[in-house]
Amino acid sequence: MHVLVTGATGQVGYELLRLVPEGFTVAGFGSAELDITDKSAVEDVVDRETPALIINAAAYTAVDKAEAEPELAYAVNRDGVANLAAVAAQHGIPLLHISTDYVFAGDAETAYCEEDTPAPTGAYGASKLAGEKVLAETWANHLTLRTSWVFGAHGNNFVKTMLRLGQERDTLSIVADQHGCPTSAASIARALWALVEQYHDKGALQWGLYHYAGLPPCTWHEFAKKIFAIAHELGLLSQYPVLNAIGTADFPTPAKRPAWSVLDSNRLKRVHGIQPTDWQLELRDVLKELRSRSNN
């Protein structure tokens, strides 16, 4: 079975190409090779590759920059998805798509389920929600997977930022009143491949909207503490920086972050048997990989 992956140079796309199951082939395209905002380019690639399934890992993810350039965020996250959905529908090709916890306002007190009403507070979340909607309106055979706080050994993310700052500074101030679910790019890729394998075996999936995020929920401050503890244990850092817990109000950003963006992954587990992973175990694997890279 041949699978087309867009956004192949991003965090999840990189892992999708690295974790291809036996018996499957994949064609991965980064934004330099395939601009999903160009419908004719999408059509050309699909005509050439004739995939049995498409995974869209392409996205505009610069949360703060999106406030200054919303047109670009919408071009990729809505219009690009519309192009993929239209071409996929035309050829009868299932489409798996990745979305975000930022579609929610962040004012809940329990984990967000798929049935909860989205209310994004920034341009990034709004553009991703628009992409979800256009996909649902365009092509029935789609599955949207919302996830959160993505990290990995590849690309830019909170884990790598903390490691860099931990080497540069003796003290760090980390937000302690935003709650979410760190999720490794590799675990997202494995979940997506598990869905692809189910589709291959059964010829169908229960399409629609699902959440997939790591467990347990934590704050950015708690996430940072665990990063430094494991990094120190593995010899990536010679000493801990002192971590000061601060509030969101003490760290203003152009885009408002959800105070609560914990996702409930039970529907994916119930329907497709895919379990959320322990992000602390995934974090250890990522830090081990970064240590291996630094030693080579």
Give the helix/strand layout.
Layout: E1 2-6, H1 11-18, E2 25-29, H2 39-49, E3 53-56, H3 65-68, H4 70-91, E4 95-100, H5 123-138, E5 142-147, E6 150-151, H6 158-168, E7 171-175, E8 179-180, E9 183-184, H7 185-202, E10 208-211, E11 218-219, H8 220-233, E12 242-246, H9 266-272, H10 279-295
Parallel strand pairs: 1-2, 1-3, 3-4, 4-5, 5-10, 6-9, 7-12
Antiparallel strand pairs: 8-11
Helix pairs in contact: 1-7, 2-4, 4-5, 6-8, 8-10
Structural overview:
With 296 residues, the protein is of the alpha/beta class. The protein contains 10 helices and 12 strands. It has helices at residues 11-18, 39-49, 65-68, 70-91, 123-138, 158-168, 185-202, 220-233, 266-272, 279-295, and strands at 2-6, 25-29, 53-56, 95-100, 142-147, 150-151, 171-175, 179-180, 183-184, 208-211, 218-219, 242-246. A 6-stranded parallel β-sheet has the order 2-1-3-4-5-10, sandwiched between helices. Strands 6-9 form a two-stranded parallel ribbon. Helix 5 (123-138) links the parallel strand 4 (95-100) and strand 5. Helix 2 (39-49) packs parallel to helix 4 and helix 8 (220-233) crosses helix 10 (279-295). The protein starts with a strand and ends with a helix. 45% of the residues are buried. The model has no long low-confidence stretch (mean pLDDT 96).
